[in-house]
Amino acid sequence: MLTALCLVQTSVSEVLDLKDELILNNVPSPLQTQLSLCTARLFRSLLDLYVPSTELVRLVRLFGPQWEQNLLTLKQMQGEHER
Predict the structure, then answer these.
(1) Mind listing the pLDDT tens digit for each residue in 39-74?
(2) What does the DSSP assignment read for 4-66?
(3) Is residue 54 within 8 Å of 9, Cβ to Cβ?
(4) Domain ranges of the chain
(5) What is the model's pTM?
(6) Measured by CB atoms within 10 angstroms of the end CB, which terminus of the chain is less buried, N or C?
């Protein structure tokens, strides 16, 4: 998940760089405005996604080993119960 987020961030940075280049090159004002608004919405949406995603990764890292141990215990109990 973190790798995917990094790839998205890299791609968004490239889009923002392209937007900046286009704005510097005499494009019509309505197009400049539209580019700025679209990229701002894209960037804001990614920031809204980034916080819960990193929190999810943190929680998986925190509780993952405990769940693995519980899974092993449950499998062992199930094996003993089937005998």
Answers:
(1) 999 989 988 988 899 999 999 888 888 888 888 888
(2) HHHHHHHHHHHHHHHHHHHHHTT--HHHHHHHHHHHHHHHHHHHHHHHHHHHHHHHHHHHHHH
(3) no
(4) 2-82
(5) 0.61
(6) C
23 burial level (CB within 10 Å; 0-12, 13-18, 19+): middle
Length of the chain: 83
CB 57 within 8 A of CB 2: yes
CA distance 11 to 2: 14
**pLDDT tens-place string over residues 16-25:** 898 888 888 8
Under a CB-based contact definition with an 8 Å cutoff, are residues 73 and 25 in contact?
Answer: no
